[in-house]
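[User]
Protein folding is very new to me. Any chance you could explain this protein sequence and its structure tokens? I have pasted everything here:
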Amino acid sequence: MLRRRPKAPPDPLAQIDPAALPPRWGRAVADALEARRRWQEILAGLRPGPVQARLGELGDRVDEGVLAVWDTAVRAAEASGIAGSLDVERVTDDYKRAKRDPSADPALVEALSTRFASVQRVLNALEDTDRRLQLLDARLGAAVARAAEVALTAGEGRDELGAELDEVVGELGALRASLEALG
């Protein structure tokens, strides 16, 4: 009787494609996928035992982090597309022109001011998202380096590593939620 090898579980990150995003957002996804690849490489180099088992469990958190980076980058790319359709230069010029014109209707100035402020909030949210995503991506990479350290020190620091991954994944979730709230 022939036995079949058990199938490996499907890769939960198989659908992630950094090239499908604009470079501004795709870089973070590519970096997160690279961090995951390094994590898996570290894990594959460990002998079976408690350290490998614990790092294997924490690998699920790394995958959650990569998925959160992907989701955030997709939402940010969508928001960037929307922001691009707002004609920022025209909005700014219209507002400045009306504000400088002493004969401008105050209701028009107020409407243009409201539109200008809204556009600025969207742009500021995108800049903040970009900055925070870069930071969290770097922290995910740092967690991978910490995993290598844990592997070399026979498991010392496993709990701290788990806490760091939990924090990074939680912050990525909050960043994703803030983009959802934006629109």
